[in-house]
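Hi everyone, sorry if this is the wrong subforum. Our group has a chain we'd like a structural model of before ordering constructs, and none of us has done structure prediction before. Sequence below.
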Amino acid sequence: MYAIIRNGGKQYKVQEGDYLNVDKLDAQPKDKIEVTEVLALSDKELKIGTPYVEGATVELEVVNSGKEKKVVIYKKRRRKDSKLKRGFRRQYTRVKVIKISA
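Answer:
Right subforum, don't worry. Here is the predicted structure as tokens:
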């Protein structure tokens, strides 16, 4: 069984027991989060929502929070002596999928 959920403007395909990094949430480790924005659900047949599947929920448990590796943005314009270097580290919350219910 798998589900496609929406969180933070992004879509994730999840199964029970999966770990995934979502955008930073305001939650402590071992907190439970219930996601009701389930776009599609597949048990034996595929159910696609309009826009969400009614009555479907995904239960997540917060594992920890952190920062990803640095992404370096470097822009250079030729023959203009113009350079720009910036770095960015995305903050994330690592969650574990506990239960998918329809």
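For your construct planning: Residues 2-101 form one domain. DSSP finds no helices and ten strands in the chain.
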